[in-house]
Structures are given as C-alpha cells and as structure tokens.
Amino acid sequence: MSTANPRRLLTTPTVAMLPRVADSLSFLYLEAVRVIQDETGVCAQTEHADGTTSRVYLPVAAISCLLLGPGTSATQPAMATCARHNTTVLWTGSGGVRLYSGSQPPNLTTYWLEHQARAWCDDTTRLQVATRMYAHRFDTEVPEGTSLQRLRGLEGQRMKTLYRTLADRHGLRRFRRNYDPTNWDDQNPVNQALSAANTALYGTVHAAILALGCSPALGFIHSGKQRSFVYDIADLYKATHTIPLAFALHNHPTPEREARRRLRQNFHLYKLMPTIVRDIQNLLDPTHATNRPDDNADPDEVDLVHLWDPHLGSVDAGINHAGHEEV
C-alpha cells in the first residue's frame, strides 16, 4: 500500500496536467482597445465617451494567438504575461499588414526542432517532406519519382479550378485574387474576407509551430522568409477552410469581421488546432506515434538537456566529465 501523502499527490503537477497547444483556443482578435495587466490578469480596456472604463479579461494562458488590430496598444507587463504563456502576438493593420512577435518558454524540448532541422538540411529528406505536404493537400498518394516542379504545377491547376468553381457557384464573374494593402477599401468582399481569414490562420499556425518548439523559418516548400514553415503548414487548410469561407461572404457587409468569427467557429467545430499539431508531427516524422517521448511522463524523469556526441549520441549534461576520457 502506498504511503504517499494524498494531499501532496493532488498538488504535484505532472506533464499531463499542463495545458497543451492542441487544447487551446485558436485566436482572439482585438481592435481599438488597450491591453493591460492588472492585479487579476491581462484585460482589454476601453475608454467610453462618458469617461467610464470597461474591461474584459483575456484567458491568455488558453489562447494560442492574439491578434491586435488598428487602434490597439499594450503595456509591457501584459506582453510579458503573454510571452510567459507562449501566446503568439500579431499586430495587424488594414489589409492584413502585420508585425508579429512570438515567444517560446525555456522548458520546451528540442525533439521536433531537431527533426525539422535534419529533414530540412538534406535535399532528399526535404523533398520527401515537401512531397508529403502536397499529398496532404491533394488528399491522395503522390506517385514515386514525381518532381517538385510537377507537384507545383498540379497544385496551381487545382487552386485555379477551385477559385473558378467557387466563383461560378456564387455567381461571381471574372473573379481575381487580389491583395493590395494600399487600396484595401477598394477590394471586393471576397478578397477582404480571404486576407483577414488567412491572417488569422497564419497566426494560429505560427503559434502551433512555436508551441512544438519548431522554427517558423525552416520551410520545405517556401523559403527565404522568417515564416516560410508557417506558409507551408497554412497552405494545407486554405482550400478547405479560408477560401470557401471567403466566397461565402461575397455579399456580407463586414466580410473581414465575419471571416474571423466564422473561422474561429471552424477551429472549434473541426478541432483544427489538434489537427495542425498532429499534421506537423506526421510531416516531420511519420513514425512519431511510436518513437516520440511519452507526453505523460513524470517531469522529474524527463531529461530536458543533454550533450551531443558524434560517436555516442546523447550524453549526460550537468556533470563534470573530467577523467571520463583520456586527455
């Protein structure tokens, strides 16, 4: 019979008790508010014309991505709290012009980052990951030996067909995808809704990538940008979520706002957040279900840091190795 103190067992945290990115809310959009930190937590504060102030508290520990639109400001303590909870913050403007900021907690394992780096730095494995991404988008197996150029051509044809089909379905003639931040108000509702929805999708995917400890810059299809991997993963879901949603809002008076609202509903309805996490893991390591570390392991039993050795692999860190090898 165990002699452990039941009260101590109830209060001792385990990895299984900690919040996971797959269980968190997708994103929250704020506009014309001041984000502050008070004695209770982080809140969005609004000043009214009569001089009164109202506050809405934000569950930052459960939010993957916080979108701050035009007219927003934030205090340093509030942003520090978001960073501690690994909440990705995006500052967005008209047309989806954005300056993003991401933070990662220091206790994240490098398991998935190492898988990503190994797959990215070798042309053969990078092509394999890119092929798996295209196979995911096509929802079919890609024949062995298919070149990346051929896959790009097939993907481009499918996207043109999708745009044409949705335009015909909604009675939109000569639709053309257009993204021009300098002439945002002159764009049609479909383009406005699509830009707003894609911005929210990029932010949520970015948050999932950071939560896994991966690098947003090491893309397999896209390259040259600090968010190349974000674009890779976000492209997996545009054809099924953001593009059909944008066309459905072609007559809506506020397409941007409605696109964000409905996309957030879709994230909850289709459980997209855990799907994104699972897809990233499967793309980087198709065998991760049997090889990855145990998510329910006791934190005291998990080796968070080790030393690399080209011959021995991982060796213990935090000890003095003097005398272990001949000098």
TrEMBL record:
Annotated Mn(2+) binding lies at: E155, H222, D235
- Recite the UniProt keywords alphabetically: Antiviral defense, DNA-binding, Endonuclease, Hydrolase, Magnesium, Manganese, Metal-binding, Nuclease
Q: What class of enzyme is it?
A: hydrolase
**Alphabetical list of InterPro entries matching this protein:** Cas1, Cas1_I-E, CRISPR-assoc_Cas1, CRISPR-assoc_Cas1_C, CRISPR-assoc_Cas1_ECOLI, CRISPR-assoc_Cas1_N
**Top-level taxon in the UniProt lineage:** Bacteria
Role noted for this protein: CRISPR (clustered regularly interspaced short palindromic repeat), is an adaptive immune system that provides protection against mobile genetic elements (viruses, transposable elements and conjugative plasmids). CRISPR clusters contain spacers, sequences complementary to antecedent mobile elements, and target invading nucleic acids. CRISPR clusters are transcribed and processed into CRISPR RNA (crRNA). Acts as a dsDNA endonuclease. Involved in the integration of spacer DNA into the CRISPR cassette.
Q: How does it assemble?
A: Homodimer, forms a heterotetramer with a Cas2 homodimer.
In Swiss-Prot or TrEMBL terms, this protein is called CRISPR-associated endonuclease Cas1
Query: Which organism is this entry from?
Result: Saccharopolyspora thermophila
Record gene name: cas1e
